[in-house]
Ribonuclease
Amino acid sequence: MSNIKDCRVLCGIDEAGRGPLAGDLVIAGCVLNSPVEGLNDSKKLSAKKREFLFEEIVKNSNFHIVKISPKSIDADGLSLCIKRGLLEIVKNMPDCEYLFDGNSNFGVSQIETMIKADGKVVEVSAASILAKVTHDRDILREAKKYPEYQFEKHKGYGTALHVEMIKKYGYCKIHRRSYKLKALEARLF
């Protein structure tokens, strides 16, 4: 007789930047080595709190962050890019149980899913923060290269301001050209 339980640790996985018109998609996997106080869905935290927690998570976890470029998203589609990112996390963080926020594992059989896991499971909350802070830091760096788009105000999302800037200046290198908007259909870039 044995009382040995599966001792594998939980790797929480979440993404940031799935919906923006510009910038990388970021997927993070995170295994917490010690507790981090204050974790929650990154969207429910202030930017200042996310930045603080990002540093705490980095100090208290093993993690892997995948960045997928707009060019890759345009060439291969969002779903395939997410699948590749998930496979990269599984490869780089072996011997874990994997929980991805949402309702699809994009065909990666090792990964379980849970809707709103980023607000329910601390490992997924940590991954959510890692992904969001990485995405936002990157887009703010790009804002300095492309000040006319005012990325610092909308983080690449399809706000009215962003759409107006695209209408005025066209697409730049970090835009996802495969994302179609009715407001831009009449104009080809």
